[in-house]
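Exercise 7. Predict the joint structure of the components listed below.
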Amino acid sequence: MFKATVYVTLRESVLDPQGNAVQESLHTLGFDEVGEIRIGKYMQLDINVNDKAVANERVKEMCEKLLANTVIEDYRFEIQEV
Amino acid sequence: MNFAVIVFPGSNCDIDMYKAVEDCLGESVDYVWYQEKDLSKYDVVLIPGGFSYGDYLRPGAMASLAPVMQELKKAAENGKLVLGVCNGFQVLTEAGLLPGALRRNQSLKFRCEIVDLLVENNDSPFTLDYQIGETIQIPIAHGDGNYYCDPQTLQELEQNGQIVFRYNGTNPNGSIANIAGIMNREGNVLGMMPHPERAVHEWLGSEDGKRMFTSIIRYWREKNGAA
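Solution:
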């Protein structure tokens, strides 16, 4: 069995108003060193297959079909054996 | 003429949509539950606003995979009229029936107010009864109405006359090119953030939405030669 960790964020070309708002708030708190912030989603999936390559392929398909909207979002994932 | 109003768990403008068809047209209209798999008796499919599946993951993402959607895609391919309002627009983009996507409003605020819309195209089954360049007043109520598409798609939308409504004056959500509503290339699927079904009587604040419904029926009658 594998554990997949999926990260979804807005694409670089798409403005992230939440990120901008949080950046401003951190500046207000004095964290002037903070540059651009991108806010996204974190998902953890248990994948019941025996082959890591298969898990990779299946998770990629899940991201393309549902977990991310690739018109506005980028995704990346990690797969760990458990 | 038969209208369907699709109801997902979390739809909340389904009754408004149903009443708008009844009040404006007096035509036959049914609620159709999202698990239904047959839309063959309907001429027009309306996808109402709301928060289908609680907006989980992304607005419209889960609803776009509901059982009724396979049938809806077939209906759209066969040229039936499909109108998605607000969450219905989000469902249509998530389902790939319309290009682009709807992001969180730039202000990060839920906006609920009457806005001015510019009619950009009246050569569509949904807008025959409007004038090009006319400004109409239609309410909005959304937190994720910020339309986005890549520059190439935008160029295609502009060139093909697929941009049907734009915000006139203030843009309430930051959408690209002030887009409020678009249709597919074939012109039988339209999605828009503003709610025409909430603007069908003077006492609702505006009756400018009524002509969307009268346009649909006029188009259908002209096409089918029916009185």
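Discussion. The interface with chain A takes residues 57-58, 61, 65, 93-94, 99-101, 103-108, 148-150, 174 of chain B (CB under 8 Å).
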